[in-house]
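Technical note accompanying the year-one report. For the benefit of new consortium partners, we illustrate the data format agreed upon in the data management plan: each record pairs a sequence with a structure-token string. No post-processing was applied to the example shown here.
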Amino acid sequence: MTRYNAWTVFWNGLTGQKGWDRAWRDPEPRTDYEVVIVGGGLHGLATAYYLARNHGITNVAVVEKGWLGGGNGGRNTTIVRSNYMLPGNRQFYEHSLKLWENLSHDLNYNVMFSQRSHVTLLHSPAARDAAARRYNTLRLTGSDAEMWDLETLKREIPHLNYGPDARFPIIGAAVQKRAGTARHDAVAWGYARGADSRGVDILQNCEVTGVRSQDGRVTELETTRGTIRGQKVGFAVAGNTSRLWQMAGLGNLPIETHKLQAFVSEPLKPLLDQVVVFGVGGAHFYISQSDKGGMVFGGDLDWYKSYAQRGNLPIVQDVAECATSILPCLGRVRLLRHWAGVMDMSMDGTFFLCKTPLDNLYLNAGWNYGGFKASPASGWYFADLIANDRPDPILADHDLTRFERGVNIDERGAGPDPKLHG
């Protein structure tokens, strides 16, 4: 595999770009693997990479029904942050952010991680107090956090709607400067290239159609490219988790599948150097500007269960109203396209990384809004779980029995209902 550096770029520019190797192979499936990861998105690819890199387990297959990164990995707003507060979540997302900070060097692939700051707008003294509690927790646990007053915010982002008649008057902001955005396709390609270079088989267009089990273990996976057996099997398929769970004969999960839309505008001149977020009065909105100039933004779930990957006009209206309420200068900007990701919403808004009732089956699910930013740490800890057959201590409560024990890891404080975690 060619190692990317300035010299290879220069040399290939002089020689007609003929010296590049294929980024990853397209192998035929083998019958048996040590580990089979179902799901060729960011979490599945990251898991395979860290299994090989951290644990020396290279007899691994990543099984993907379409093309790698073609699910939620390519259908999100690419925001990276670690401003979580509750035990378990706090350490997990901070570890993920630290992995993001060195990911391009680790993968030898530019994932275009841009630490442009995550700015949460505040609209009331109560919101400011709640944010101060959360951000003080960040600072006490070794992360970065700032509270901006109104004058500082105006100086940093002058074109927000600060007028006296604004629909949502702004009084300040909570800021994490190390947060930012990354390029979702580049992350998928980087992890795929890194995993493949260590011997992992990436099997695209290989849909799982059945899960056979016997004596409390998964024995084989039926796929559109033949039967595949794995000594250990991991599910990392986001909103399709419930489908595979039922294939395995395990009944229902404490997960609902909803769709989450995202949008991008026509390219503009540089306008917004940060990720800006607000939530007040039933509104929920986040926006940043891509390297191509498009404004990338999104808002709430569609509020009904669905496996569809397409948008609809009511959410277009809702998100457009949020955008113009906070950035009136976008009022005449054209919408270029919109799409939907299929979200696996857990009952408390927090993920599952755990063993399952089947002895050799492992679950990675319930990511809600946190999937993209969690990708590196998700792969890191899921690989650790599979390799060592036990969860890391910080993830002890991120299992399927936590509700039986009365443990809600509820960052938003909205109660055990996925529709409230939008």
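Partners are asked to follow this layout when depositing records. Residues 371-388 form the longest helix (18 residues).
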